[in-house]
Amino acid sequence: MILNYFKIAYKNLIRSGVFSFINILGLSIGLASALLIMIWVNEELSYEKFNENEEKLFRLIVKSESEGEEKFSALHPVPLVPYLKDSYSNISKATRYSPGWGSLIEYDQTFYKEVKVIEVDQDFFDMFTFPLIEGTKESLFTDIFSGYINFNYTNTKNCKIKPCS
Asked: Measured between alpha carbons, how far is 119 from 95 in angstroms, rounded to an integer?
């Protein structure tokens, strides 16, 4: 019985080839699009799910108006984080996350210019659960120029980060 269905489907495909081609092409494009959208939505919903504290993490978005246009940004004034921690008792930890625009990194008396440097506060590693290759969270921010590097350099222990001029 099922073999009969396949024979009829094959004959219909041959008899109306252009119409069948258009239908099959549309079906395959629709299925591929749906699959890509499902993969994208799944990736967006799983963003930052690796953090143990992800239900307690919030991002601060600042609304500003410029030239009659509303703008939303995750950039905010530097003193805002300490102010929020001092003013609101329900904020236990807060951190700033800022890309460093060109830093000079000294390692083994060799200087490297890095553009992929992220500047964070001391609470960053308490809030986010990024694995440390070496050392502890407490030893990361011993002085203002201490840092943690997890790429490009091997056997990094004591790096000094200096701003480029």
From this structure: 10
